[in-house]
Amino acid sequence: MISAVEANADGLIGPTHSYAGLSPGNLASSLNKGEASNPRAAVLQGLDKMKTLADLGLPQFVLPPHERPNIPFLRSLGFSGSDAQVLERAWKDAPSFAAAACSASPMWAANAATVTPSADAHDGRVHFTPANLITNLHRSLEHDQTKRALDALFPHASRFAVHDALPSVAHLADEGAANHVRLCRDHGEPGVNLMVWGREAWEHWDGPYPARQTREASEAIMRRHAASGAVLARQGKAAIAGGTFHNDVVCVGALDTLFFHELAFEDTEATKAAIRAAADGFEPQFVEVSTADLPLADAISSYLFNSMLIRVPGQDRLTLICPTETRDNPRSHAVAQGLAASNGPIGHVEYVDVRQSMRNGGGPACLRLRVVLTEAELAATNPAMRLTDTLHARLSDWGRRWYRDSLTAHDLADPALLDETRGALDELTRILNLGGGFYPFQHG
């Protein structure tokens, strides 16, 4: 057996972190629309969450924020003049497009890509497909820059294959790893790739919220990655209608364990049977939470299932890394503590403060992209992007210097913010060794 570990690559929260309410179906995002955000607190919370994982012994990487405001996007819509004038005119004449151009949504790295580890790929490489995220305009702007970030972190083509996103059409709507769970006996062994989809490409959809992932997109990614052990399952329609915009709001898995809400899948028994049939050399463990124990509304508001399920080195049972909102909700807290008190596969629960992200609808699991790596693959990553105590301190200082402690929609139109974000990102490219011209504005 080849030894492998599960690393996390977290999105570094950007300077334009705000509550714009741009995602229909994301209830927290809609609820907090228009309120003032605190980008400085957000980036520090995200960095501290990364350090918590690194301190537990898991490899932790940093994915850089995208350039926002996205001036090239606004120029493509016909706005002209200096960059400051483009931003000003866009906010005056097309504020919805301007808001999309300022979104810091790339922070949620669970949507960055779908990842297939080398143990599951026929060519023995780690495969990445950046998500096209076409359901929401502000997120559809991400995949080109996401590919550049993944190329920077995983630079060796002999070990890593970073593909382009799927074509940006509704038939192939793809939301990345937020709808993918890998189960296995051990990270270095072949596993089961559970791909969860919300609708079929030509299906008439009349739900109150969009079903963001198509079956055809999931199938295309598995073909592209030549991935073994693929299982496709339909997301529960009732879950989508209740505000489960991604499957990771009601489901998380690690190693042989799948932890999920009873409404997560349209056909739970068929999904479990398919996973068992695809599992080679291990018996999957299913930890299901009933609606009676945790109503869907509480699952969504507390983000119990948007926690990180990890194996801490030296521990036999899994650890669930929950947001503090899980602890603050009596029903979800009771479920979490019941897990730890049981003899089941999840034996430990820890809580992290990512409140700024949570208010926009993203918990601990939203902020990270999981990547299984062998020792050789880990050694082939960009070392400047791996979180250490030194890098954590350096990035924390960077965030305190560059980020505002309050930001409203009105502030996003401030030309000074454009200069601030570019100054921050320019310095960040040197900190993370991203090379010249990583961001569009650096091309001169």
Automatic annotation (TrEMBL):
- Top-level taxon in the UniProt lineage: Bacteria
User: Where does the secretion signal sit in this chain?
Assistant: none
Keyword Transport in record: no
- Supply the enzyme class, top level: hydrolase
Q: State the Gene Ontology terms under molecular function.
A: N-succinylarginine dihydrolase activity
Q: Name one Pfam family in it.
A: AstB
InterPro entries with a match to the protein in the record: AstB_sf, SuccinylArg_d-Hdrlase_AstB
| Record key words, sorted | Arginine metabolism, Hydrolase
Catalytic reactions of this protein = N(2)-succinyl-L-arginine + 2 H2O + 2 H(+) = N(2)-succinyl-L-ornithine + 2 NH4(+) + CO2
- State the protein's purpose: Catalyzes the hydrolysis of N(2)-succinylarginine into N(2)-succinylornithine, ammonia and CO(2).
HAMAP family in the cross-refs: AstB (MF_01172)
The record describes its quaternary structure and partners as:
Homodimer.
What family is this? Answer: Belongs to the succinylarginine dihydrolase family.
Any idea what this protein is called? N-succinylarginine dihydrolase
Organism of this sequence = Brevundimonas guildfordensis
Question: According to the entry, what is the taxonomic lineage of the organism?
Answer: Bacteria, Pseudomonadati, Pseudomonadota, Alphaproteobacteria, Caulobacterales
